[in-house]
Hints:
Blueprint: H1 4-13, E1 20-24, E2 37-38, E3 48-49, E4 53-56, E5 70-78, E6 93-97, E7 109-112, E8 117-119, E9 127-130, E10 140-141, E11 152-154, H2 162-170, E12 175-179, E13 182-189, E14 193-194, E15 204-205, H3 208-214, E16 221-229, H4 234-244, E17 251-255, H5 266-270, E18 275-280, E19 284-285, E20 291-295, E21 301-305, H6 309-328, E22 336-340, E23 344-345, E24 351-360, E25 366-370, H7 380-384, E26 387-391, E27 397-398, E28 403-407
Parallel strand pairs: 5-6, 13-16, 13-17, 14-15, 17-21, 19-24, 22-25
Antiparallel strand pairs: 1-12, 2-11, 3-10, 4-6, 4-7, 5-9, 8-9, 18-20, 20-21, 22-28, 23-27, 24-25, 24-26, 26-28
Amino acid sequence: MISYKQSRQILKKSLIKIKDEYIRSDDSLNRVSSTNIISTTNYPSANNTAFDGFAVCSKDTKDLNKNNSRKFKIVGSIIPGNKPITKKIKKNDAMEIMTGGVIAKPFDTIIPIEQIIFYPNKKEAKYIVINKKIKKNMHVRFLGSDYKKNDLIIKKGTIIHPNHILALKALGIKKVKVKKKLNILFFSTGNEISNHDNIPNWKVRNSNSHYIKSLSNHFLFNFINGGILKDNHEKIFKKQIKKMFNTKIDIIITSGAVSAGKFDFVPSVIKDFKLSNFFKKVAIRPGKPILFAKIRGKQKAIFGLPGNPISSAACFRFFVQPYIMDILGVPIEKPIKAILNNSYTKNNAFTHFTKCKLKSKHDGKLVIEVLKGQESFRIQSFVSSNIWSLFPSGKSKFLKGELVDCYFPNSYNNSLI
């Protein structure tokens, strides 16, 4: 049996390679950028106004004050989306302008509408009256002040979120180069597993496949349901692995049949293949009998997850999900640090993944409570939890007030970075 740290090192050395593809930027949600994405234009693309008001030339106001006001003739309107005015502008001319309207020379400053004095009145305005010096560039949004041409928009290895898509579309990026999604073929195992709703008490409803399928959008893979492997389906499983070599399947995941029981055939079948890397049994709770294998000479891998629901969920989160992110080139996940609100004791040699409740105190500090019911068959505490906490090996007692590493169960922590 190896440590959790050792298992992660093996996974790091066993990454499979996947290709890139170009997709439309508006279809890139939850995909991983394969390259740095660079702006091909300036944004804003021209100087424009941040307010509704009137555009004037600041030089025309340099000698104005309360005792020396002047009328500026209204010569037109600048409307967003319309071609900038090219007519000849005279001294002491003013032009009405709406938010986002392009400011063309000689205009170089904006007076907000709230500060405007109309002459002879607002209804029949032909002039505005200015009675103070107006500084240059007031309320102007400058060309390229947000993004300049060749500025970095998205770093390589970034998971693309809705805020990124907004930027890509605003900057005219039609297509982006991303990592292809991994294709994962999932099998539940065991004669006891059933897809029926009404079952006798010697059967178990199939929940693990549905849980992992529900994570596919968050953890960036295509889920393919292989169905249920019965206790005598050893040959069928072996055939499916061979079939994987000539398909687009990247990873096979099984749930159950990985321990040491009479019908736990997954390890023996996998060992029949030539493997470059392999481990079975990791010093963790829950999920000790987890298995991993990398097929030698192939860009294919296999995970054998335990059958108990919480063991399966924990092993997916702390083994499969980091493996996927490493393949996609996403930066190493950083834990959330939270204060332990109740003491926790465990076996010194084991790493524990615990179901916890994360809360924010009135002073803004994050605290976690280790929930009751940590056994791998208990799903009620999993429903009540909103965070996984990792208690590492090498220490048995964790006292109230200590900082603990936490991980979101249904999304990647790097979304906070």
